[in-house]
Design a protein that fits this description.
57 residues; alpha+beta; 3-stranded antiparallel β-sheet; 2 helices; 26% helix; 21% strand
Length: 57
Amino acid sequence: MPVPTRLKPNSPCARDIGCRLHPFTNAALHEDAGPSIFVRGERIHVLDDAARALADG
């Protein structure tokens, strides 16, 4: 799967797009928009690599 040019070739997003396809993934959207990579949790929230907080649960 080609990596979008806006991503650095060895970034976590580029590596995820290039080698992983999760069971419920929309492949076209995944390639265009990129994955959500969660980097840490704080209480009931998980934070992605863009520092967006999402409620877990």
